[in-house]
Design goal:
16% strand
Length: 67
């Protein structure tokens, strides 16, 4: 059985996942960048959906080393 995380749990950073602010969660849902499901008024997320979002938004750093 899959475990679902609430918006409050994601905002606190649960099970090793980074904290995702509630406002950020709302914007990600509006722009369809983070998958979610609704149960009543609550938005629920699975670990796979959050990890998928994080992996798709990796930004490489520029090499600041000068030779």
């Amino acid at each position: 059985m899959q475990k679902y995380y609430t918006s409050d749990e994601l905002a606190q950073g649960v099970d090793g996942l980074p904290k995702i602010n509630k406002t950020t969660q709302r914007n990600l849902r509006l722009h369809r960048k983070l998958k979610y499901t609704k149960c009543g008024r609550n938005c629920l997320y699975t670990r796979e959906w959050v990890e998928e979002y994080l992996n798709n938004n990796i930004v490489e750093t520029k090499n600041t080393e000068t030779a």
